Amino acid sequence: MLLKYIKHPLMIAVTLAMFSALGSVHAYRTDHGFLPPGANVCESHVSVSLEVPPNSQAVPDPFKGEFSHGFYHVEELNDGLFYMTDGVYQAMFLVSKRGIIVVDAPPSIGVNQVDSTQSVSIVDVLYSIPETQGLPIKKLIYSHTHLDHIGAASIIQDAFPKVKIIAHWQTQQQLRLGTGELEGLLPGSGTNPPPMPTQIFFKEKRIKLGKQTLHLSYKGPAHEPGNIYIYAAKQKVLMLVDVIFPGWSPFTNLAIVEDVPEYIEAYDEVLEYEFDVFVGGHFNRLGNRDDIIEAQQYILDIKANALAALQNPALFQIFGVAPQNGLGAFSIYLDQMACDCANRTLDPGVTPSGNDWLSRIGNSDINTLTHCWEMGEAMRIDPTF
C-alpha cells in the first residue's frame, strides 16, 4: 500500500482523509450519463490502486536503507562510470585520471526532503565517493533542455568555471529562448538558469577525457528536439532520458512527447546499441535489454489499441449528442477513445501481446489512459504515421 511509503503522521492522516473522501479512485471521470449506450467506455475503466508491481520495485530501495548516502545513492556501473539518484531522478558521471565528465544535473539530487538542513549540492554528491577526490569536473553534458534534469548546472559551473558544457545545437537554441522568469519552481535548483553550452554538435560527437570516452548521438525528437543518446561503449551503458522508464509506464502523455512517430522509433534505435545497462533518467531502477523489449511491447499494444478505438463505431454516436457544441462533443469523443484504448491495453485477454500490464508496468493503471489519448490523436492527424 501507498501508506507504507509515507512516514510522517500528518501525511498519513491527510492521505487517509483524501482516499476516504474520494472513495473508489479512477483515472478518469465516469459520470457522462448523457452518452448513448456503448459510448461511455470510460465508465468501465480500471480503478487506480497506486500499488507498485514487483517488476517496478526500486533497486536499491531507500525505504530498506539501501541507499549509499541515506537520501541519495551513488553506485559504479562499470569501469569508472557511475550513476547517482535520489529515487526520482538519475544522472551519470564518468571518472578518468584527468577529471570527470558529468551527464545532466538534476536539481533534486542532494535535497533531503525530510530535513532540508541536511541537504547538499549536486557537487557534494559527486564528491561523496573516494574515486572523485582531487579530480576536477571537466565536462558537463546536457541530455536535453528540461530543467528537472539540468536545473543544477549553474552550481557545477560556479564550482568549476572552466567546465565545458556540451549539448545538441537544438538544445542551445531552446535555452536561448529562456527568460528565467520561472526560477525556483524545482527543489534544489541553482540560483541561475542553466548556463549556455560552450560546445554544440549536430549528429554525432565523441567526448574523450583521458582513457574514458562517451559517444553522443542525435536521432530525432523522441522526447523533444535536441534529446540525445549518451553511450559508453567500453562500459556497455546507454543513457536516453525521458523516453523509456524500465519497469514503469512513461510519464503522462508518452512523457509529454513532441513527436509520437519518432518516439515509437526510439525503441528500435535503443535496441540497436550493444548495452548491458540502460539509464532512463528517472527512478532508481536501471534497465536491461529485456526491459526495453517489454516496454516496446507495451507501446505497440497502445498503438494497436488506439487504432481499434479510433475505428470503434459505437464512439461515433457521440457526435450526435450535442450538434450545437461540436468542440465539446469532439473532446468527449477523444476522451472516450482513450478509455477504450486503455481498457483494451489493460485487459490481457484483449491486448495483442497478451501481457498483463497491470502486474508488470508501474502506473499503467493511471498513465495508460493519457498515453492512449496522445497516441490516438497523433494517429488521427499526423501524416508521418
What's the gist of this structure?
The protein has 385 residues and is α/β, with parallel strands linked by helices. 31% of the residues lie in helices and 15% in strands.
Write the layout of secondary structure elements.
Blueprint lengths: L8 H14 L50 E6 L2 E5 L4 E7 L2 E5 L18 H5 L10 E5 L5 H4 L2 H7 L4 E5 H8 L22 E3 L2 E6 L2 E6 L11 E4 L4 E4 L11 H5 L3 H12 L5 E3 L9 H22 L15 H20 L11 H4 L3 H18 L4
Parallel strand pairs: 4-5, 5-6, 6-7, 11-12
Antiparallel strand pairs: 1-2, 2-3, 3-4, 8-9, 9-10, 10-11
Helix pairs in contact: 7-8, 8-9, 8-11, 9-11
Relevant terms:
385 residues, alpha/beta, Metallo-beta-lactamase, Chain A, 2 domains, 7-stranded mixed sheet, 5-stranded mixed sheet, 11 helices, 15% strand
Written account of the structure:
With 385 residues, the protein is of the alpha/beta class. It has two domains: 23-54 and 299-381, no CATH class; 59-284, Ribonuclease Z/Hydroxyacylglutathione hydrolase-like (Metallo-beta-lactamase, Chain A, 4-Layer Sandwich), CATH 3.60.15.10. The protein contains eleven helices and twelve strands. It has helices at 9-22, 122-126, 147-150, 153-159, 169-176, 252-256, 260-271, 289-310, 326-345, 357-360, 364-381; strands spanning 73-78, 81-85, 90-96, 99-103, 137-141, 164-168, 199-201, 204-209, 212-217, 229-232, 237-240, 277-279. Helix 7 packs antiparallel against helix 8 (289-310) and helix 9 (326-345) crosses helix 11 (364-381).
